[in-house]
Amino acid sequence: MKVTIALRLPRDAASVAITRQILGAELEVLGVEKSITEDIQLMLSEACSNVIRHAQDVDEYTVSAELVRDKFVITVVDTGNGFDPETAGAGADSPMAESGRGLQIMRALADDVRFINRKRKGAIVCLEKALKFQHDSPGELLIAP
Asked: Does the entry feature the keyword Thylakoid, yes or no (predicted)?
């Protein structure tokens, strides 16, 4: 079973909160445990915020979210200049560092993180999180064999 939601969003700070609320509502309806929903919302916020802050000369970006059995996969795609994920978070070693904290948060909360740099064509951030559902929730019933 696979369920997909795709959003094309303006590169505007308001889009972060809207996307967070839409996906949070989806997870709530499915009956995903609250702590996992909060982790997903925070990862999503960081990925979208990075597009807003860093993807210059981009008017919009896309977010897709897929429920694949008991896994939630978020993909954020922009068409900016791209970035090197190895050096982008290098300054975040200090607790007071501004740059790179979002990447560290995503890495800490996701079960799997992939950053794809498409130099001068943008970046793709893919975040995966295993889901746990409340008993007898719609999500639990959907993934049942």
From this structure: no
Based on its alpha-carbon atoms, the radius of gyration of the chain, rounded to whole angstroms, reads: 15
Specify the CATH number for the domain of residue 120. Answer: 3.30.565.10
Interval 18-36: pLDDT, tens = 999 999 999 999 999 999 9
Contact between residue 16 and residue 43 where contact means Cβ atoms under 8 Å apart: no
Give the number of domains in the chain. Answer: 1
pLDDT tens, 49-104?
999 988 877 789 999 999 988 999 999 999 887 777 776 655 555 544 556 788 99
Sheet of 2-10, strand order: 2-10, 60-68, 71-78, 122-130, 112-118
